[in-house]
Structure formats: structure tokens, C-alpha cells
UniProtKB/TrEMBL annotation:
Domain of life per record: Bacteria
Catalysed conversion reaction: Hydrolysis of alkylated DNA, releasing 3-methyladenine, 3-methylguanine, 7-methylguanine and 7-methyladenine
Native organism taxonomy: Bacteria, Bacillati, Actinomycetota, Actinomycetes, Mycobacteriales
Gene3D superfamilies recorded: Hypothetical protein, domain 2
Record's protein name: DNA-3-methyladenine glycosylase II
Alphabetical list of PANTHER family matching this protein: DNA GLYCOSYLASE (PTHR43003:SF6), DNA-3-METHYLADENINE GLYCOSYLASE (PTHR43003)
């Protein structure tokens, strides 16, 4: 997709405007970056701007992105990693991806695709930043995982560069994650298995970040060779770091049922979901995102919410 850019730079600030030849819906595209309410690395301010902090290879960055019109996005960035982030902005927003081969398998998905043509995938290229929150979300409630993420970032993150909103922090770097003591994980209600996996992947950070040069399916396959990283965790990482429109979160506690009830009016297990979505490969994750943002995704509630498991006694 041709992209025209305009930018200006300074010692601490840089800006870039992207003008695309097809719609970009910024809010829906960036939504997977936010890890729950109060995420210290992501804020949406009252003016509609999306703020995020990250660690680029060249250093930390705070960025602010706004939707100027359906075809135009402007990003401001601060910090040592600002120029690198802005240089890769069109790559991050997957403006190079085509959807000509996407043929929805259900009228509900087709309607959502027509209504939200600006939905893009995410290709941040920051593997560890996508992987660690996914590990925190393994086999626990999302409320517990988000609380753990907030606590650990508050304890071990660092102040953001530039004029970030109050309360924002840059996530810990690989060295900091690898040195977090067991009692800090326990205090964040993170059990031993997940904490060991986080330390393990932090020590492999250099090789993990090189996976962005691989085709997404191969990168996800290599992720799954790491003890503690299964299909679900690899898919959740690929959805954010690799821009993989096909990364289906098999093993999710609710996803197969949601797909079944939304599209077929009945329950469905993982195996049936995989078979049902096979015709839309390589757009299975895109299909899921369209269901999410359309507001059509549903699953009847048959019992009370699962209790939050307390790992702090270990």
C-alpha cells in the first residue's frame, strides 16, 4: 500500500503522519495492546489519543497516536527509540497486508468486515512485550492477569520519556524481568510455573526478538519449543508482535464457545472451531477480531464466574 509521510524531528520529539489508500481504524487496531483497565503502558486520553510505551532496540519510547480522518494517522514520539518507532509505523499497522483473499464464511462476519474495513492487524516487532503478558494470562482469570501486569510494571518499570500522561511507565526490559525475585511474583499472584516461564523467556530475549525476521507461522512454531509456551500463548504473541492474521488462540477457555454460539447458535469445542474456521485460513484471527469489534460475539452464561486463584501462599 503506498504511504505518504511527513515528519519533523528534534532532540526528544518526532512526529510522522501516514496517509493510506484504504481506511485505517486506529482504535480497533491498537486495542490488543491494552492489557486491561489501568494498564500503565497504555492510556486513551479524553481527546481520543492513544498513548503507549515500549522499548525499541534503540531505546525506550512514548508515543501518541491520533486518527485525523479515515485514511490518516498522526503519531508523535519521544525518547531514544522515537525515530526507530516512527520509521516502522506503517509496518506496525500492517498497511502492507492485503485482504483480497478474505472470504467470510458467515453472514455475521461478512457484515462486520463490510462495516469495519479499517481493521488492521498489529506487527509491533516487540516479542517479549507481547509474550510476557500472554504468559501472565495463562490458565487464570483475565482480571487476575491484568492485576499482575499492573503490579509488576509498577514495581519494575521505569519512567517514560517525553510528556506521557500521569501514571504511565515503560515496561521492564529483559534484564529486569529476569531478575524479579520469586516473592515479587508471589505478591502479584503469579504462580511458580508462570514466573519460571517469564524468567526463562527474558533470558532468551535476544533470540526471541530475532524471530520477527521469520514468517509468522515459523516464528510461532519456534516459540512453542520453549518450555511453558503452548499454542495459545504463541498465538496471542503472534497476534501482536508478528501481525499474524491467522493466529488462532486455540486453548482459550471461552473462544470456541463464543464462535459456536455466535455463528451456529450452539456450543463448540476447540477441535470443531479449528475445522469450522479452516476455510478462512489465513484470516482466522481476523475473523475473531471482527466478531469482537462488531459487538456480535456472545456466549450464554450458565453459572457463576470462575474464582480468582490465589497463588500468594506458595
Amino acid at each position: 500500500m503506498p504511504v505518504r509521510t511527513a515528519g519533523s524531528t528534534g532532540d526528544a520529539w518526532a512526529s510522522r503522519t501516514l496517509s493510506a489508500d484504504a481506511p485505517v481504524h486506529l482504535a480497533h487496531t491498537l486495542a490488543p495492546l491494552r492489557r486491561g483497565p489501568g494498564d500503565p503502558c497504555h492510556q486513551i486520553t479524553p481527546d481520543g489519543a492513544h498513548w503507549h510505551t515500549s522499548r525499541m532496540p534503540t531505546g525506550p519510547v512514548t508515543y501518541r497516536m491520533v486518527q485525523d480522518d479515515p485514511l490518516t494517522v498522526t503519531a508523535d514520539a519521544w525518547g531514544a527509540g522515537a525515530a526507530e518507532f516512527l520509521d516502522g509505523l506503517d509496518h506496525m499497522l500492517c498497511l502492507d497486508q492485503k485482504v483480497d483473499d478474505f472470504v467470510p464464511i458467515h453472514p455475521t462476519v461478512a457484515a462486520a468486515h463490510q462495516r469495519y474495513p479499517g481493521l488492521r492487524m498489529l506487527r509491533t516487532g516487540r516479542v517479549l512485550e507481547a509474550l510476557i503478558p500472554a504468559i501472565l494470562e495463562q490458565k487464570v482469570t483475565i482480571v487476575s492477569a491484568h492485576a499482575a501486569w499492573r503490579r509488576l510494571v509498577h514495581l519494575f518499570g521505569s519512567p517514560p520519556p517525553g510528556s506521557a500522561p500521569a501514571g504511565m511507565l515503560v515496561p521492564p526490559d529483559a534484564a529486569a524481568w529476569s531478575r524479579i525475585p520469586s516473592w515479587s511474583f508471589h505478591g502479584a499472584n503469579v504462580g511458580p510455573q508462570r514466573s519460571r516461564t517469564i524468567v526463562r523467556v527474558a533470558r532468551l530475549a535476544e533470540s526471541l526478538e530475532r524471530m520477527t525476521a521469520l514468517p509468522p507461522a515459523e516464528a510461532a512454531r519456534r516459540l512453542r519449543t520453549i518450555p511453558g509456551i503452548g499454542e495459545w500463548t504463541a498465538a496471542e504473541t503472534a497476534q501482536r508482535a508478528f501481525g499474524d492474521a491467522d493466529a488462532l488462540s486455540v486453548g482459550d477457555f471461552h473462544l470456541a464457545s463464543i464462535v459456536g454460539w455466535t455463528l451456529l447458535g450452539r456450543d463448540m469445542d476447540d477441535a470443531e472451531m479449528v475445522d469450522y474456521l479452516e476455510p478462512v485460513r489465513p484470516h482466522r484471527y481476523r475473523t475473531i477480531r471482527l466478531l469482537e469489534i462488531s459487538g456480535q460475539a456472545r456466549k450464554p452464561r450458565f453459572g457463576p464466574r470462575a474464582p480468582v486463584t490465589d497463588h500468594r501462599w506458595h
